[in-house]
Each structure stands twice: as structure tokens, then as C-alpha cells.
Amino acid sequence: MKIERLSQDKIKIFLTFDDLLERGIQKDDMWREIPKVHELFSEMMDQAYSELGFDASGPLAVEVFALPAQGMVVIVTRGKMNGSSEERTSDDDDADDEIYEMEVTLEQSDIVMYSFRDFEDVIQVCRQLQAAALTEDGRLYAYNNKYILALEPALIETSRHNAVIALLAEYGEATSVTYAMLEEYGKVIMPSEAVKEICTHFFN
Question: Which positions make up the signal peptide (predicted)?
């Protein structure tokens, strides 16, 4: 579980599928109101407080983004509290169960995204993807001093999907950036057919 602060009132939590499995939670459970998910959220907020000093009391907007092959990104935004903290602590013990007032938004993206530290790694993975006839598609972005290759699974044969992921993982790492964040804050280097374009420029 990785936690980082995006602003004074906003944090980002990246959960791998291993993080979920360790807690007995399946990917689809995040869409359900079950005790395990509440326990996970409490654990995330405790860790956010201990690592970042992020106080999660009061109303919270929670956005959950499911990423294929990577895990989940949870964006937590703290809202303004109505009333004083004295009013909250004067409630009975049952209030502990409702300490987080959450408005949860869920979004699932099928787009596969991997980040690379060096452009040379991008060149090599594109060469391998083309040589294995896995895909020539893709969009290439620059974001946070890294290169991110985004692939649309619909344009990859289902039977070859795992092979694509394996190659990407060999040269890069799964990114916790959501596609929405990438579109908003990333710089587009190649808007389409990135694998083909890179191979054309560097190997022909």
C-alpha cells in the first residue's frame, strides 16, 4: 500500500491486488458494502494519519479507480466539517462505526498503463511488442519525469493479453496513475500507434 499527498486536503492510495488478497478482499468486493472493505478503509486512514498527518475526520469524497493488472487507486478528498469537533466527540460509542462520512465514486478503466524511467526502456519494450506481433498500438505520455505507455486492451487479442502484460512488466512497472489524471496532467508524446511509431523511428 502506497500513500502520497496530492494537496492539503487530498491523498492518493495505491493498492495492489496482493494488498487486497492479503486482507481476503476480491477486486469486486470494493463495489460492495462489507465489513472487510470498511476495515481496509480504516487501515488506510490510520496509515495516512501516521505517515502524512492526514486527519480523515469529517465528510470525505472517496474515488476508487480499478486498474487492470495493477490494482486500485483510491483518491480521498477531505471536505469541510459541519459543526465543531466537540459535537462529534460527545456522541456515544456507536459513533465510532460512522466516523467516516464517505461519498464513494467507483470507476473502472480497462486501459493498461505501465511507466518507464528511461526512454531506452520504452524503445526496447516497443521493439519486443512489435517483434512478437502483440500490438503496434498505444499512446505515450510524459508524466512526473517518467514515460507512460497506455494500451487499449480491445485492440489486443484476448489470448495475447497476458503476454503483453509480461513484456511491459519486464521493462517497466505498473503505475498508480489513473487514466483520467494522465489525460489531465500528462504530456502527450505520441497520441496513437506509439509502438509502431517508435519502432519506425529507431529500428528502420
Answer: none
100 and 192 belong to one structural domain: no
Q: Which residues pair with 15 in a beta bridge?
A: 72
> Alpha-carbon distance 107 to 64, whole Å?
6
Shared domain for 86 and 123, answered yes or no, is no
The residue from 54, 87, 108 where one domain ends is: 108
Contact 72, 78 (CB under 8 A): no
Q: List per-residue pLDDT tens for the chain, 204 residues long.
A: 889 888 888 898 888 888 888 888 877 777 676 788 888 888 899 999 999 999 887 788 888 877 766 778 888 888 765 443 333 333 433 334 444 565 666 666 678 889 999 999 999 999 999 988 888 899 999 998 999 999 887 777 777 877 888 888 889 887 877 778 888 889 999 999 999 999 999 876
pTM value is: 0.58
